[in-house]
Write a structure and sequence with these properties.
Strand content: 5-15%
Helix content: 40-55%
CATH class of the domain at 133-346: Alpha Beta
CATH superfamily of the domain at 133-346: Type I PLP-dependent aspartate aminotransferase-like (Major domain)
Strand order of the largest sheet: 4-12-11-10-9-5-6
Number of strands: 16
Largest sheet: 7 strands, mixed
CATH architecture of the domain at 133-346: 3-Layer(aba) Sandwich
CATH topology of the domain at 133-346: Aspartate Aminotransferase, domain 2
Structural class: alpha/beta
Distance between the termini: 59 Å
């Protein structure tokens, strides 16, 4: 019997190259449903790699839903039934690439949490019947009670304030700008910023003025000058884990910024969506100035991107205006999602998940620092992201392109610029995105190798 012998992409780690070759062979019909893959030792001898490489490749192919291992029999190409076809269509991984672009929560307890919550819900027809209806715009009273209790351990002050549910963090940003700004108003941001705030501002016809940062974050003196010059309506800040640069504002800078904003009647929009452990969060700006600040967060990082529930905490003076804007833009939220969240808040599963996320990201950050320490990356200990300023000679887009060629997808500093300014060459790595520590390590080794080799020699300019 002739053994299937693949041709491997030399730019990828061997196990990923073999997994990709299996996928391509299936797509081309060279490997058909129910075909048995070659025995590991035989294939290892044929393509001159270790058995461990074959084992990892087969495991990666199984993770992608391409093959299925049968105990004592071998590994076989899957027969695609309807469910498998749907799962394949929904897969977000780019074949042959390790994705470090988007800050997804790493997968851990979430699937079992969701499975238990769905099973529990299915056991009560009365509950299902109640959740089928439109929920009140503020949410059901029992849900609000659970949520308010959970907020007591979050970095927010509820005295003189109240909370509203939103469809995630981006919706919260858009609602806040829509309520508090008029066309032509100015808002201040950090000079590298989450693109969602720029989209929301543009949609409202609001101008964005960026403020320079240093290694400690946005600089209060520059904010003061901007307030005096531009008379802004609002400032948007990510003080706990700045996106994308990973800095954290000290309590001294937070207080200085609050004092400036109070003096110049500038509202603060505090975005705390990016995950870091609760123990690593200083007092929030909202706690320092609840009458001056709108605080927003969501569960896209705390649980997963599919959990499209966020929230705003706003002072009573503008609470009803925000409530009206929410009513106009979405009316209400899914009570099913909120019910699951509140169930996890009440039974302690959400708190346990956040402890797991903190431990998982501490381990991933340690791996990153181990491989990239020579380039002094910046991040919080439990953050999903890592910011890496590139050595002289690199341009951000050139590094991104070279990393992609070698199988790793990363973000350029240029993706976070405000206006036409060109930021210093840097990249953002989402350490949370790779599925496993092995895959993360492979990506970090590729990044390290590219940094060690330096940029490709450019054609001489005559």
């Amino acid at each position: 019997m002739t053994i299937w012998i693949p041709i491997l992409d030399s730019a990828l780690p061997k196990y990923l190259a073999l997994a990709q070759a299996i996928e391509e062979a299936i797509n081309k019909g060279e490997l058909k449903p129910e075909d048995k893959l070659p025995p590991q030792r035989r294939l290892a001898d044929a393509i001159k790699v270790t058995i461990g490489t074959i084992s990892r490749a087969y495991s990666e192919a199984e993770r992608r839903g391409l093959v299925m291992a049968k105990t004592g029999s071998g590994t076989y190409v899957r027969t695609k039934n309807n469910i498998n076809a749907i799962v394949d269509d929904m897969a977000q991984d780019t074949a042959g690439k390790i994705d470090m672009q988007a800050a997804f929560a790493p997968e851990g307890p979430q699937i079992k949490m969701l499975s238990r919550a769905m099973t529990s819900m299915a056991e009560s027809e009365q509950l299902l019947g109640n959740l089928l209806h439109y929920a009140p715009e503020l949410g059901y009273p029992n849900h609000r009670k659970s949520f308010q209790q959970w907020l007591t351990v979050e970095p927010v002050a509820l005295k003189g304030c109240d909370f509203l549910f939103t469809h995630g963090g981006q919706h919260a940003i858009s609602v806040a700008i829509n309520v508090l700004c008029r066309e032509g108003d100015i808002i201040l941001t950090e000079d590298l910023v989450f693109p969602g705030i720029l989209a929301a501002a543009q949609n409202k016809g609001v101008k964005v003025v960026s403020i320079a940062m240093d290694e400690q974050g946005i600089m209060p003196d520059n904010v003061l000058q901007a307030c005096q010059r531009h008379k802004p309506r609002m400032i948007y800040l990510t003080p706990n884990s700045q996106n994308p640069c990973g800095t954290q504002l000290s309590i001294e800078r937070r207080q200085a910024l609050v004092d400036i904003c109070r003096a110049h009647k500038v509202l603060i929009l505090e975005d705390d969506v990016q995950f870091i452990a609760s123990k690593d969060k200083p007092k929030s700006m909202q706690e320092l100035a609840p009458e001056q600040c709108i605080y927003l967060s969501s569960f896209s990082k705390r649980f997963s991107g599919a959990m499209r529930i966020g929230f705003l905490v706003a002072p009573h003076a503008i609470y009803n205006k925000i409530r009206l804007s929410l009513r106009a833009s979405s009316w209400t939220n899914s009570p099913i999602l909120i019910h699951w969240l509140c169930q996890w808040m009440d039974n302690g599963e959400l708190a346990k998940l956040e402890l797991w996320l903190a431990a998982e990201m501490t381990a991933r950050q340690a791996l990153a620092k181990q491989h990239l320490a020579a380039w002094t990356p910046n991040s919080q200990q439990t953050s999903f992201n890592l910011w890496l300023e590139l050595p002289p000679g690199w341009l951000s887009h050139e590094f991104v392109a070279q990393a992609k060629e070698q199988g790793v997808l990363v973000r350029s500093a240029d993706d976070y610029r405000v206006g036409q300014q060109i930021p210093s060459p840097a990249i953002r790595l989402c350490l949370s995105r790779p599925k496993t520590h092995v895959q993360l390590t492979d990506a970090l080794i590729i990044i390290k190798t590219i940094l060690e080799q330096g940029p490709s020699l450019k054609e001489a300019v005559m």
